[in-house]
Amino acid sequence: MQPREIFLAKLTRKTAPRVGIGSATSVVTSDLMDEVGVSFPRAHLHAEDMARLAAAGHTVLGFDNVMPLFSVWHESAALGCPVDWGGRSQWPDGKSIYSSLHDDIRVPANLLLQPACAVPLQALPLLQRMMGGQAAVVGKVFGPWTLGYHLFGVEDFLMATLLDPDAVKRAMRNLIEVTVAFANAQVDCGADAITLGDHCTRDLCSPETYRDFLLEIHQELQQRIRCPLILHICGNTADRLPYIRETKLACFHFDSKVPAGEARRLAGETLALMGGTSNLTVVRNGTPESIERDMAEKLRAGIDIVGPECAVPLDAPCANLRTLVSAARRLAGGSSHGSAT
Ligand SMILES: [Zn+2]
Fold first, then answer.
1. Are 221 and 50 in contact (CB under 8 A)?
2. Ligand 1: centre distance to CA 254 (Å)
3. What is Dmax (Cα atoms) for the chain?
4. Protein residues placing their CB within 5 Å of the ion ligand 1
5. Which of 197, 250, 150, 214 is nearest to 24 (CA)?
6. Three-class DSSP category at 94
7. How many angstroms does the Cα of residue 140 sit away from the middle of ligand 1?
8. C-beta neighbour count of 43 within 10 angstroms
9. DSSP annotation of 87
10. Cα(329)–Cα(339) distance, rounded to whole angstroms?
11. What does the alpha-carbon distance between residue 182 and residue 185 come to, in Å, rounded to a whole number?
């Protein structure tokens, strides 16, 4: 089985010869940009450079999948948010554009032709060609909750969930169409699976808010997007994992704030689990020994695809990511040799 087939099998909890090794979010670091010779911000804005940098997730680091949408701002930029695309050591950042939840959201008729959407859509087929079926190609979209934060500002959006829940639900109904259109366009351009980022983190969203505002939306996305979805939510999600199970999404990419064994228990038999390895203590500051211990713990817990919990910090050493991949392969009984060597 090729790494691509292993990744896609594990994503839906099917049998594979070893654990999957990958990530739903960015694995790019500043030193990886130097190695590839492609840096932010260019990698967000030029399809060929985006594909080249993403390909390194497999060809340099050895992961079973690649993922070219490094930033969280693509759809929001296409919807009109001004975005500073950052640099070698800086993530992109953007600004909200609406002052009230009652403002009509203007979705451009040619949304997918806006550069911020068009570039990843051009990068995906390039990346499929570069991978030649060796590694899975994962796309990424944001759900209407995160898009609401971006368009209206986090504070105003969250206040409105308390003061004017109907306005929030109306806005989310409009924004779900953006998520569906961008996701299915990525599938048409060659994405094998899609990361669905929606930042309903515990400190900003209670489990009841997840149930009342997000559960149905995520169920609908699962039905309307034509490939397996990987839901990504940062932070401690233990209190909403029982609801996430009900969405019937293929996989949940979880944060190390939920211990791996507890995540496995809460996810049940059908929801696959990815990630759970701390970016701070393991990926950024880990030693070969602590990285190996962490991988052994994830394998014991029955995590389906091991790897970083969220976007890797840009100042992490990419050598640690190589160590993580080879430790996971060795412990899982597969060869430590692969495309990374
Ligand atoms: Zn995250």
1. no
2. 8
3. 57
4. 234, 310
5. 197
6. strand
7. 13
8. 26
9. B
10. 12
11. 5
What the block records as the tokens of 154 is 């986090």
Element (H, E) at 251: strand 251-254
Structure tokens at 66: 């690649």
From ligand 1's centre to the CA of 224, what distance in Å? 23
Report the DSSP beta bridge partners of residue 47: none
Please determine, for residue 336, whether its predicted confidence score (pLDDT) is greater than 70: no
Is pTM, for the whole model, over 0.85? yes
pLDDT in tens, 181-197: 999 999 999 999 999 99
For the stretch 222-253, pLDDT in tens is 999 999 999 999 999 999 999 999 999 999 99
Q: Which of 140, 139, 24, 149 is nearest to 76 (CA)?
A: 149
Alpha-carbon span 328 to 323, nearest angstrom: 8
Burial of 268 (0-12, 13-18, 19+ CB in 10 A): exposed
Taking the C-alpha atoms of residue 73 and residue 94, their distance in angstroms, rounded to an integer, is: 7
Closest CA to 199 of 259, 240, 170: 240
**CA distances, 238 to each of 266, 267, 281 (Å):** 7, 9, 20
Q: How far is the CA of 155 from the centre of ligand 1 (A)?
A: 19
